[in-house]
Fold each of these.
Amino acid sequence: MKDRALFLLSVHWPRRTAAAAAVVTALSMLAGCAGSPPQADAMAPHAAAATSEGTSPSFTVSGAVGKRASFDLAALQALPAATLTVGSNTYTGVSLWTLLNDASVGLKPDTAVRNPVLSMYAVVVGSDGYRAVVSLAEIAPESGNRVALVAYSLNGAPLGRNGVARLVMAGDVRPGRSVARLAAIEVFAAQPSGR
């Protein structure tokens, strides 16, 4: 499946093949198509976070980080704020890259791997179970430098029924990676098939 997807991408979008390859690989791993399928519990969001479609006053960050952390509105607002305008809406929040590199979380890349961030990704989960994958290479300042915003405000007002926070991606053609009612952010490092 992965090889067919890469072939189709290279034929139709030759300039985007490298970026597409990273996305297809991450999605293949998520779907269990590449190498060994991930453990079921490794892919499941925090049990309390995704039990209903309601909103939660906080969300967790876990996985390949130095320390599991929980963020509520006050904790988000204590971090450096950023804004992102999508259409006629202006979101205020925290860059996902900034959040993951905050001292309370701290990315934990595999130092035995060359350019470890290039093989890392985050699975962003809403309280309804909706998931989106963000490659850390696409948001790292030294590589893709795209804006992925963990928004806590829309046009100057709280998100209300969309929860304490939501993920908003800059530059996506369609808003499929916009995750409302943020419940968890899980960071993973893709492992070579021989590991």
Amino acid sequence: MTSLWYLASPNAHNVAATAFEEGLRVFKTKLTADPKKREYLDDLKAATLHEVLVEVSKAQAVYDAKRGSSQVRECILAFSKRVHHYGTVMDVMVQHHPEYASLAWGAMKIVFGSIVEHERLGSTIVTAMCDIADALPRIELAEVLYPTTMMKQTIALLYSYIIKFLLRALAWYETSTASRAIQSFTRPSALRYTDLIQDIYKATGKVNELSVAGSQAEQRDMHNKLRDIHAEQKELRDQLQEHLEEVQRQLQSLTTLVQQTNQGQQWTESTLSLHIQDTVVMNQNIMASQVDIRHQLSDVQLTQALTFISSSCSIDHKTTYQQALLFRQARKLSMTSKCTPFWDSNLLRTWNTSSSSSRITLKATFRDRLNVRDFSTNVIEQLMKSSVAIFWVLKTQDASYSTFDVLKSLIYQALTRDYVSHTDTVFSFNLRKFQAAHSLDDYLNLLGDLLEHLKLVYIIIDLDAVSAEGVDDCRKAFNAFSRNLALRDAKTVLKAMYLEYRPGVGQEKADDELLLRIARAPQRQSKRIPNVPLRGRLKLAMRKLPDRAGAIAM
């Protein structure tokens, strides 16, 4: 594996200290047999090679301070170099006249050769120490960059050579002048230091070779990793391209579906108006065909009376309900028919299941208005199937009504729902009150008379069907109507619901009125409006039929 050329071994912690300790061990066991050098190295208490080098540098400084730089010494040294340089020529001349100069010249050559060798030995030590000092930073960098086992062993061997050289140099600096002069003759630099310096250079070269090999192995691994990353990126780009193409196909299919849906909606809207009229006429005929058997108005009289009341009403509640059913059916297949499941809220459940009269406002955004309308349509349908008294004022296209129109429509709905229970005397009395009504209080009192015999009544008013200037009056009127029912000591439980989604509407909300805000929800949390939206037990409207004719006569 190429990583072995540049990654650290598992048990490598402090590579520099470990290599130095290994170098000391190699030096003590293999490179020296002198116990004095071992003891001296222990006395240095050096932890790194730099500390040993510092000790040698101190000894060199002491040596240079003692030696000085006298002019006589420099002249002797220069003369010795020249004599030593031309010694070979003198050796040739001595061969011709040995009887004159051999003894004297031999003595002079030994003396001056020792002087030159002494200077060369000092120069060799200083040069080698400079080279070692220059090489140590590179060695430490190699230790940090490539802390492998081979690098550790090579650096340990290099450190042992350097320690051996430094101890020799330290011993040379600390010896006496006479001893150094003798060593210049007995131990020249070529014999004592050259082989050791060459070993240091070879070990340094091997460290450099290991660094180059580690660098090449690391580059190869980097290239392989980059190649793998490039392949992964290419595969990822291909997958992303396939995903984008799939998204484009889905978008195209969705666009086609939306176009088809729009065409279907246009066709539905064009046919709705035709079917609505037929349905309204059919329902009116069915309602008009019902007859009263005992103490009831005749069909002709009832039709005339209800037609009179209906003619004064600008709101056709049956038509608006039929339109709401058709529009709800058309929106069932649309994604926009899903919304926040507000029908599961505790606030709505409390309003519906409480045993006392209560009012609630469903506050929705303009975007959710269709869902709120569908909810109210389902509530009306549910209550009608449960035979619960339910009256409503729903939104129609481009139409807005006053508070008077709302009250007239509710009165008309109350009369048409229970017309079978009215005798001609009671019905004629209510008809006269309807004709004589001119104020909101008159219509509210008449509505209270019609509803007080019912135990449970639901009223749903879409405030968007009321004109903007009449919304507050409408709220005030129904707040007063609830209080009037309580003052009548009536047993009627009134459940009023307001639908509100127009900005600026609903400023006159009473303190005891509940408010349910319908917030937008993410698509995955949205649900379709259930067919039975009101939860809990519904109290059926059991009609209470007092002797209304007798009460009126009194």
Amino acid sequence: RWICSSCTLRNSSDVFQCVACGTILVPQMSISPPSSVESLQPESMSMDQMREIAERKVMTIVENIIKFCRDQNMPFVDDQFPPTENALYFPSSSSRPNKCQWLRPQQITFSSNDTDWRNREWSVFSNPSPTDIKQGVLGNCWFLSALAVLAERPDLLKRVMVTKNYNKEGVYVVRLCKAGVWQTVFVDDLLPCDEKRRLIYSHARGKQLWVPLVEKALAKLHGCYEALQAGRSIEGLATLTGYPCESLALQQSCPETEVEEDMVWVKLLSSMEAGYLMGASCGGGNMDTNDEEYNQIGLRPRHAYSVLRVTSEYNIKFIFRLVQLRNPWGHFSWKGDWSNESVLWQQNPQLANQLFQRNADNGTFWMCLEDMMKYFDSVDICKIYGRNWVEVSLGGKFPTSAAEPLTGFTLEVFKECELEFSLFQQLSRTQESSNQSPVDTCICIFRSSVFNGKATIGTMVASSKRKVKKHQSCSCMLDVGTYLVINLAFNHWLSGYAGAGGSPSTSGVALVSPSYVLTLHSSHAVGITACNNIDGLIADAVIQLALKAGKETAVRDGVACYQLTKGWGGLVVVAENRHQSSCFHIRCETTCNNLVSSRGSLYTADSVPPLHRQVIMILSQVDSYSGFSVKHKLTHRMAGNGVDDLGNWGPRSVKHDPPLTLDVANLHQPRPL
């Protein structure tokens, strides 16, 4: 039985329409993030197999709803996302058009400049291309740009629309991957229009419905259309495809990071050869852009372009690194070197014959890598893999202190394979949740073994960088064996999360454990299960990370410090005492900005026992939109024989200052070598 959402009458399960008020039953859509690791399927399955199974199930329901609507001579109305103001705006929104009406396709008109629509019939697809997309009043270029990149591959685009043919009943299904979780979204074809019966939001040329229907499905996932404002193209690509995505930086984000042109070029070439989708972000991120300057050279700042080709070309004297881009809006093109009007084509006729398209008017142009790295801030790469790749997703939560258990995932690799790990934080787009901030995530993969039901942590084989971003990724090749996957995050321990508004935990605000979804794509089937039964897991994970990726400094005979700084979103300090009998004293004094300490203090003093390692301090970036700075000074000495406390560096009989309280002990307690 099912309960009608309009009149609350309990109806029989064999009817699709409420017998009292006539409301049509819409299949329920799961739009909540998984609350635990048990809530997602831990078995890997081919991505194409998953999609085909889901489509078969859904199309049976679609056919039943269409048949019911035809029998009743009535169109479909989605009561889960009804055509009201609540579907358009946040409750407190002030940016509302003067008038809005919800119309079916056959009721919609177009501007007088678009004469093509009069001679066409409505369809879902009609030879779709990136230049079909037209943005409306909504500031969702991040999504439409990703949609334009996907439209470069119509075969992939059509996977998003489960219902690929127009139907008068208005029953459509869209398949999207929200923050790592696949969602099957039912929508009707009632679309927001102005008083002249023209579409308010996005639409497509030639009376195609794929653009407004996918946009409506995404609005339903996030609660309303207004929730789609602002974002990054990489989020759109991941949502539309479910494939692993990564962002290739073209600009230096902080003084400690470097962007090497040669490495960027190698990555672009290899991604193009692999058949990946790529979208370039122009003048976005932290770039200080001058809109007038960009307009003069034919570029749109804060706009995304499709990357079509990447090639190295030669003449007698030079090597040219050229990238072909397309403005998805089909006009307004680059005017600099290698543009459509550039004299460089005349000077290099052989290249012109190979690459140049005369009279190109679809927004396509060539640009050299040097200019691209001057005016673009990043390239988002969507890794399209073959049919045999498998996918598995698991949910979890980041602990708010070291006193809470840290979930690890035991990974069994049965055949050498390539793996892609994607970590999605479950953050809401609603205005009421706008104070949610992503935490500083890091994915780590370690060798492991299981003995008497307990997993052990070994050396680290791969990791991502630590970044304050909603989405994190890590790629690696793994041999046959057992591994342990650990997801780390620390800046929410003392900075608060969600309801805390960035305040320290000492404000008395209860901390909320941020939830996440870990998605794994692999070239062969793997086994993965959650495990919590690991002693000292969080400390050992950070120690092994520092040993593998940190800078080692031999401070004394038998004593070393490992530090993670450049590219690690703050500072990590680990001390190692290889002496047989003497303790090692170490003080860490720091000054910083936009960083929070895992120990709640910027000064620490510790006595590290013989044959032990210890995580001394972790400083984590808080605000991803602001830079950070840190200076630290390490002072150290060997303790006398039989001395295990700090001596005159701390209170009597104290080994650690500040003390290792319950909420930090499992991270900062000394661990045996």
